[in-house]
């Protein structure tokens, strides 16, 4: 999906990108979704505005990384594959860094975010609010603590987000 990749120019304003990302994140949190399409539009906006992507792009000359046909930054500069040369780049899928786990446990205070019951250390499970299989990022903002029972009920559905907003 070429249209989701940013257009790099010589004067990337990282402060403006961070500000727009925060605005998009707040709009997502408010969640005035009426359909699954609204959710996907919001997710696409967050992906497009991810500050770390723009930070990487700011280190390159736009002539070197922009597609000569469409003008977007070439996906090679943004995405990673299993063939990358760094350990960090090889971590794909549902890998959850320990630092992220600790932040989520502290934030959620060992309480399942669905049934509100205390969850012991050895029973903690982490859930992608926007499912990983549907493009949800592995970030503190998109991860929550659940008990095993609640985590098994959700699967990879977006219905919970839609139902919350329609109530």
What's the structural blueprint in terms of helices and strands?
Elements: H1 14-30, H2 36-48, H3 51-57, H4 62-65, H5 87-90, H6 98-108, E1 125-128, E2 143-146, H7 148-154, H8 159-166
Antiparallel strand pairs: 1-2
Looking at this protein, list some descriptive labels.
single chain, 167 residues, mainly alpha, DNA Binding (I), subunit A, two-stranded antiparallel sheet, 5% strand, elongated
Detailed description of the structure:
This protein has helices at 14-30, 36-48, 51-57, 62-65, 87-90, 98-108, 148-154, 159-166; strands spanning 125-128, 143-146. By secondary structure, it is mainly alpha-helical. It folds into two domains: 2-79, no CATH class; 98-166, DNA Binding (I), subunit A (Orthogonal Bundle), CATH 1.10.30.50. It is elongated and about 55 Å long. The chain starts with 13 loop residues before the first helix and ends with a helix.
Give a brief rundown of this model:
This protein is mainly α and 167 residues long. The protein is built from 8 helices and 2 strands. The protein has a two-stranded antiparallel sheet.
Give the SSE string. HHHHHHEEHH
Structural class by helix and strand composition = mainly alpha
Distance between the first and last residues' Cα? 33 Å
Please count the helical segments.
8
| Number of separate strands | 2
How many separate domains?
2
Strand content bin: under 5%
Please state the overall shape, judged from the principal axes of the Cα atoms: elongated
Question: Helical residue percent?
Answer: 40-55%
Low-confidence parts: 80-91
Widest sheet: strand ordering: 1-2
Main pleated-sheet profile: 2 strands, antiparallel
Report mean pLDDT, rounded to a whole number: 77
The whole-angstrom Rg is 18 Å
